[in-house]
Amino acid sequence: MRLALFSDIHGNLPALEALLADLRIQAPDFLLCLGDVAMTGPFPNECLQAVAALDCDLVSSGVVMGNADQALLEPLPAFVPRGLPDEQEIYDLDAWSHAAVGEKEREWVRAYQPTLRPTPELLAFHGSPASNTEVLDAGSPQERLNQLRAEYGDAPLWIGGHTHRPLLRSLDGWTLLNPGSVGMPFELRNGHYVNPARADYLILDLVAGVFQPQFRQVPYAPRRVQNGFLGAKVPHAAKWVAEWVDVR
């Protein structure tokens, strides 16, 4: 059995298309999207449509509800300054995304699930099984992980998104994984955060009864997403164009 898991597309259709092209080569048996499909990018509806079509075009699939997906189903809150970098620009971009998504696409989002368990060995979620905004990463306290395991079960593989950072954390009898981000795999360059034009995701192969992880990175041309921001007349488009860069 081969599973493909991906997360945090954030309205980046060129990245999603690069991922799907690679998936056709990798030929997984099951696809699992860990959420945050549409918000914060120039192609929100197109990404929701592409994810909705996965069952028809490739193989069986499932989608977890991310925090940005949930935001599409709720009224957009008023902007509240918190003193964070670029917070007004990010709010304006999210507001544009929120307004751009159609009602048919929102209906698809309503079907996303808080958690999924496609096999007995695997529990999938966005942030954590308890909350799609909780961060589980290399620094998460063991005490908190024990609390979650007691409440949500002892599957040997837990896989989440939300952080946009690939992760393989081996623990006592189980593993915490994160495939990274398809659409916004940010990194720090010369004191500034940028998004390299690559789609990060994870393959799991069942070998002798154990799932073996393979982290994959699929490059694409940054100009395609840059043109998307400009063509859609997204707020502060020039800023977002400058943040998408070639893979080193």
UniProtKB/TrEMBL annotation:
Cellular component, GO annotation: cytoplasm
Domain Calcineurin-like phosphoesterase residues, every copy: 1-193
Pfam families reported in the protein's UniProt record: Metallophos_2
Domain of life: Bacteria
InterPro entries found in the cross-reference section: Ap4A_hydrolase, Calcineurin-like_PHP_lpxH, Metallo-depent_PP-like, Pesterase_MJ0912
GO molecular function: phosphatase activity
Gene3D superfamilies: 3.60.21.10
Family: Belongs to the metallophosphoesterase superfamily. YfcE family.
Protein name per its UniProtKB record: Metallophosphoesterase
Organism name: Deinococcus psychrotolerans
